[in-house]
Structures are given as C-alpha cells and as structure tokens.
Specification:
By secondary structure, this protein is α/β, with parallel strands linked by helices. Helices cover 37% and strands 14% of the residues. The chain has ten helices and ten strands. The termini are far apart. The C terminus is likely disordered. The structure holds zinc ion.
C-alpha cells in the first residue's frame, strides 16, 4: 500500500518537474531578443524627424486583416501587428500569411485587459494575459524576430515588469511599446483635423478619408514615428489604402519594430558570449537599407 502511494507521489512530482521545465525553457528560436520589460511605457522610438514610419496595427487579427496584408504586400511594406491572444486562434490562415509576409507579430495581451492595480495585486494574472498570448503567437514568430509587447490603453505598472522579468521566457520582451502618431483626435483653429486616432474617428463617424487627413497632418508635422492604428474595422484598411501612395510619394520609408535602432538598447544579451563581435547594421534582421 505504502509502495503504491509513494509511486503515485513520485509520478506527480515527475509530472510537475516536467511541466516546470517546459514552462521555463527559453524559446530556442529566439536569438536576438534578450530584452526585459520596462517599468514604464517606452515612449521614445527615435523615428521622429527621420522620415521613417513604423506602422503598428493593434487589436486584431480580424476579418479585415487579410485585406490590409494584401495592401501592405502590394506596396512591399512590412509592419508590426500587436495581436490579441484570444483572436489568434480564430484566424490561423491570416496569422500564417502575416508571418510569411515578414511582418513582426507582437503581444497585446490575451483579452485586451486594462493591466492596472488588479494585476499588480495578483501578478500571476499577468501570465494569463501575456504568457498565454506568447504561447498563442509563438508558432507564428519567425526565428530571429524580436518579441514586443504593447499594453492595452497604454496602462502599465512597474510591478508588472518586476514580475514578468522573473519569467525565463517572458523577460525576452521589449515593452511596453508606446506610439508617436495616432494617439488622439485634435483640431486646428479652422476645425480641421490636425491629428487623428482611427478608433476615435469611427466612434465619431468620420470617414476613412477625413481620418486619413488627420493622420497625414500629424505625420508631416513629426516627419516620422511609430504610428498607432487598428485592424479590426474595415474603415482603417480603407484609410491605409488611401494614405500609403501619398506617403511613398513624399519619400517616407517603412520599418518594423525589429528595425527601430532605438529599441536595441533594451535587447541586452543574456551572456557575454552572445555579443556579436561587430555590432551595427550587420545585426539588422532585414531591410537594412530601409534608412
Ligand atoms: Zn488595443
């Protein structure tokens, strides 16, 4: 009887050890991203004034993401998609294409939760939001792609970083990534949009064209930056379709977050042996000539 009980306990212990080993193993496919969660949003991209745009699309994937991928592909533009984990499993073909087309696939929580006080008090809840999304996107993350996180609504606490950086896998994330362009609607003295945010445009029933004018004015004023948009409404796709030819004609170049050099400083190598002998352009995964 005692032997059977001991054997049962041993089996349970083995199972727990196996599960723990699996959970804490660093993802073998990730080489360049050895970053750590930051205590506050990363507000500085270094792209303002460089005529370089990093288009970022949040909250998808959705039924409209394929049209957006088609549009980006026509212009040979690569972007970054901050996906919501719960939506990933509903759009496997879209996720496949996103990966094949060379876009950066990033983490925007599992249920688009506001990661405030409640999550600081029960930090293990962060694992359900960020860890589960990491698991959902990992089949679609290309080898060598960096891992990036953006907090829903930009809500973040330093305690979250402390907790997540103790996780052998999640500590590889750079984030939370903020934005330079697309944060809110603003008007000039004549009542014309001088800045826009697509979700708020649609809430105010503005047209894709009107909203795009707002984005264009903010882009021209700042001459580059991380652009916040969303791929869950058809109007956002129409807006992007209208904007891209103009931006290209005006000489803007487009990068993914992997090509934003300002973020390199958050990618501290895990061990000294991992440091390349000569750092610089040679470490750029692709699009090295983009800027
Ligand atoms: Zn969002």
């Amino acid at each position: 009887m005692l032997a059977r009980a001991l054997s049962f306990v041993a089996t349970i212990v083995c199972a727990v050890v196996l599960v723990l080993a699996f959970v804490t193993l660093p993802p073998s496919q990730i080489e360049t991203a050895n970053a750590y969660f930051q205590p506050t949003n990363i507000y500085r991209s270094g792209l303002v004034g460089t005529k370089t745009l990093a288009l970022t699309f949040d909250d998808g994937p959705s039924a409209f993401t394929d049209d957006l991928l088609e549009t980006l592909g026509q212009h040979k533009i690569r972007a970054t998609f901050f996906v919501v984990g719960a939506r990933v499993r509903q759009h496997p073909a879209t996720m496949d294409r996103m990966m094949r087309d060379g876009h950066v696939i990033a983490n925007h929580s599992f249920s688009h939760a506001q990661l405030g006080k409640r999550y600081a008090q029960s930090p293990q809840l962060l694992m359900t939001q960020i860890g589960n999304t990491n698991a959902a996107i990992s089949p679609y993350v290309r080898p060598g792609q960096g891992l990036y996180f953006r907090a829903p609504y930009g809500v973040w606490r330093s305690a979250h970083a402390d907790f997540l950086n103790n996780d052998a896998e999640l500590k590889h994330y750079v984030g939370p990534i903020y934005w330079d362009i697309g944060g809110n609607i603003s008007y000039d003295d004549e009542g014309n949009l001088r800045g826009a945010a697509d979700w708020d445009c649609w809430a105010h029933d503005l047209s894709a064209n009107q909203c795009g004018r707002g984005y264009m004015r903010e882009i021209r004023r700042k001459q580059g930056g991380v652009v916040l948009m969303h791929d869950i409404r058809e109007r956002s796709v129409w807006m992007v379709q209208a904007m891209l030819p103009e931006l290209i004609a005006e000489g803007y170049t487009f990068v993914t977050l992997d090509e934003v050099r300002e973020f390199d400083k958050y990618k501290a190598p895990v061990t000294p042996e991992d440091v390349p002998v000569a750092q610089g352009e040679g470490t750029v995964p692709y699009g090295a000539t983009a800027r």
